[in-house]
Amino acid sequence: MPRLFTTVIAGLLALPTGAFALSPLTSANEALPQDALIIDIRAPEDFAAGHIPGAVNAPYGKFRGPAENPGRVPDAASLEETLESIGAETDKSVIVVHEGKNATDFGAAARVYWTLKSVGFSDLSVLNGGYTAWAETGAAPETGAVTPEVSDIDLTFSDDWMMTTQGVEDVVAGTSEAVLLDARPLDFFEGRQKHDAAEKAGTLSGALNFVHSAWFPGDSPVIEPSETKLTEIRDIAAAEGDKPLVSFCNTGHWAATNWFVASELAGIDNVKLYPESMVGWTLLDKAVTNGG
């Protein structure tokens, strides 16, 4: 059943504790739940210059791999340290706040959302349009650094929403089945362009192209999937029965947007993200093809 829905609440006053579970997307015009942990993933200097009152800062890079393979999932110990430092607890509601510059920027929030879901957080949301949209409401920000009360959590990374390189290799070899969905613009898919960290251009054999920016109207940074596009992605999944839908790109950033929409908004079961994507794949000298 589709999960694309919004909660309409007037005003910017905080809601009482435990009022309702979060929707995958929170409008900048909605009141933010009083008990939610607001994780701002912007750079520390941007956070200090202005942030949503009560927010804590955990820059996006803390949820990513090294420069040579940015899509690699950080180890559980590193994630625990990051999340404990901001007082995160798996039973808390969490709202992820990115900058809100453009469609590409949304991928950061989607990737953090996916990471948090994969380590046991269940009540999650992305602030649609990010900090930029919130600031445009005229709400007053806080400034300066924040020192949260630390937490103590024990994380285990679930593979329910992840496809490993070995899993992708099995799909490409034909020993297992999945729908491979390339979230990158056409020049990447057809092999005319590559990420700087990738060893070669191209895509995965048998992949379909579904560009991540298709969920955004025009140049808007606010994600608003049309019913036409939601139907299209549901039809792709339905045509393949129970096969997993595997979203990938260069580094699992753009692909996180496709994963978010397919899994969290379109309500499709068995959607997975290949976090290392084409950079990780080509670093291992795996075969590529030109799409199209």
TrEMBL record:
The answer on whether this UniProt entry bears the keyword Transcription reads no
* Listed Pfam families: Rhodanese (PF00581)
Coiled-coil stretches noted in the UniProt entry, renumbered to this chain:
none
* Gene3D superfamilies according to UniProt: Rhodanese-like domain
Signal peptide residues are 1-21
Q: What is this protein called?
A: Sulfurtransferase
Give residue ranges for domain Rhodanese: 32-143, 174-290
MF GO annotations: transferase activity
Query: Which PROSITE patterns does this UniProt record tie to the protein?
Result: RHODANESE_3 (PS50206)
- Asked if the record carries the keyword Phosphoprotein, the reply is no
Q: Which organism is it from?
A: Algicella marina
Question: Do you know which SUPFAM superfamilies this protein is assigned to?
Answer: Rhodanese/Cell cycle control phosphatase (SSF52821)
